[in-house]
Write a structure and sequence with these properties.
Elements: H1 3-25, H2 30-37, H3 45-69, H4 71-91, H5 95-123, H6 129-157, H7 162-165, H8 167-181, H9 195-217, H10 222-245, H11 259-266, H12 268-290, H13 295-311, H14 313-342, H15 352-379, H16 386-418, H17 426-445, H18 456-459
Length: about 475
């Protein structure tokens, strides 16, 4: 991989890590923050939800801004917005001030992720795309795992405010590196803004994600949550109808006509991501609620899962070159799903060695599947569709992450209700893990439809 392409991918990956770590780190700080603001900890859930709403509202805007003003310029602006909002979050003394700062943070995060992916795609040749995508995939795999541990340490030994202020040196360093290393990119075009497309797509995402989050976290009644999800679906259909018919849409839906993008980002890929994204949510709950472990003990096991994510990076490129995208996505996907399902059979009596070995294998296969999905999804995207593809991919990934938590919560509560238990127990986690594992297995088998030489120009596989 060329030095410039590697440096650009690492810089963008570092910025992604800052954003994703910030989202994962806040959960452990809520009790201390509630004391500072003089509110109940449950009230601070609005700080999490407003960030989600802000990201959902502004993600559809990122592709148009990238094309209009240049990807590098908007990426630099997004870092400034995110870091400035992080400073404001740490300085907040009232809940209202904190909520406002989190909303601005969401704007920065919404622009940074898809536009960063466009920058990498613009500067990585196809034969280097696998490694480049691996560099920007690792934050999504590691930040949710180590975030609670880092947040707990900072909150315990320093202050919850440093969970946000830590973004200042990271963001400043990232901004300088982007300014010095990433070449300036001219605007792709001066197409006019599509206000109706923006309103419909943003409103659809906001309604859908809040409704799904509410189902998982019980922010409102089930009826209200379902109604909100239904409104999101209706608005989404209206957005698609509009985007297909307007001459210059906010998002170019021709992207979905690229077969590799459609199967990895929309169809089978979405189901695989739902099953995989359930594990970071379910594992800490299993170890603490099911086994009675302390947060530190649970975090130790989850860190093994994280090590598996990193361990696969060294052989991902070679594996795709030897076996090709189709074989990797099918075989590794089935193994990934089986390891997720096996996690449901963990018990306090099982030896620590076997639990850690299974978690390590689950992390290895998870990492491989994510990198293969993300790389093949953009392998055949032409230059004029990259910004729309990155935006649509980010939107779909947001939905898959929320669906993973919502479905997991439904499975846990449904199993508990049928068994007439007062609280979730290990058998309920078994149901959730097995269901999610089977979802990954079933969706991965769909990749058999891919041609043998799918993404061969990127992987170097000869299609045999």
């Amino acid at each position: 991989m060329s030095r410039q392409a590697r440096h650009i991918a690492l810089i963008v990956g570092g910025a992604f890590f800052m954003v994703l770590l910030d989202s994962a780190i806040i959960a452990t700080s809520l009790p201390r923050m509630a004391q500072t603001f003089g509110v109940e900890p449950i009230e601070l859930s609005i700080g999490i939800s407003i960030y989600l709403v802000s990201v959902a509202a502004f993600v559809p805007l990122s592709g148009w801004l990238s094309d209009r003003y240049g990807a590098r310029r908007i990426f630099l602006v997004s870092i400034i917005v995110f870091v400035g909002a992080s400073l404001a979050c740490g300085m907040a003394d009232t809940l209202s001030g904190f909520v406002l700062a989190r909303a601005v943070q969401g704007l920065g995060g919404a622009l940074m992720t898809p536009i960063g992916r466009v920058i990498v795609l613009n500067h990585a040749p196809k034969n280097e795309l696998v490694r480049a995508m691996a560099y920007i995939t690792w934050p999504a795999l590691t930040a949710p795992v180590i975030g609670p541990v880092v947040g707990g340490f900072i909150t315990t030994y320093f202050s919850w405010r440093w969970n946000f202020w830590i973004n200042l040196p990271i963001g400043l360093f990232a901004w300088i590196l982007v300014w010095r290393i990433v070449p300036a990119t001219p605007p792709v075009g001066r197409r006019p803004f599509d206000p109706l497309g923006f309103v419909l797509s943003a409103a659809a995402l906001v309604a859908l994600l809040i409704g799904l989050e509410s189902i998982a976290h019980r922010w409102m009644t089930v009826t209200h949550s379902v109604v909100l999800v239904a409104i999101g679906v209706i608005l989404g259909v209206a957005a698609v109808y509009h985007l297909r018919r307007t001459p210059q849409p906010l998002l170019d839906l021709r992207t979905f006509k690229v077969p590799t993008f459609a199967i990895t980002s929309v169809h089978a890929g979405t189901y695989v991501r739902i099953g995989i994204n359930a594990t970071p949510f379910l594992l800490p709950l299993l170890f603490q609620l099911g086994f009675g472990y302390t947060p530190l003990e649970a975090g130790t096991y989850v860190l093994v899962y994280f090590l598996g994510n990193l361990g696969m990076k060294s052989i991902t490129t070679a594996s795709l070159r030897w076996f090709g995208f189709r074989n990797v996505l099918v075989i590794n996907g089935v193994l990934c799903g089986l390891f997720v399902a096996v996690c449901g059979f963990f018990s306090p009596d099982m030896g620590k060695f076997w639990i850690m070995a299974i978690l390590l294998c689950a992390g290895l296969t998870r990492s491989m599947q994510y990198t293969a999905l993300n790389t093949l999804g953009f392998a055949d995207i032409p230059g004029n569709l990259r910004s729309s593809a990155a935006t649509l991919n980010s939107m779909l990934m947001q939905v898959s992450m929320v669906l993973a938590i919502a479905f997991s919560a439904l499975l846990l509560n449904g199993s508990r209700f049928l068994a007439q238990r007062d609280a979730v127990a290990p058998p309920d986690f078994a149901v959730a893990f097995v269901a999610m594992g089977l979802l990954v297995v079933g969706a991965s088998l769909v990749f058999v439809k891919l041609p043998k030489d799918a993404g061969a120009e990127v992987s170097g596989h000869d299609g045999i």
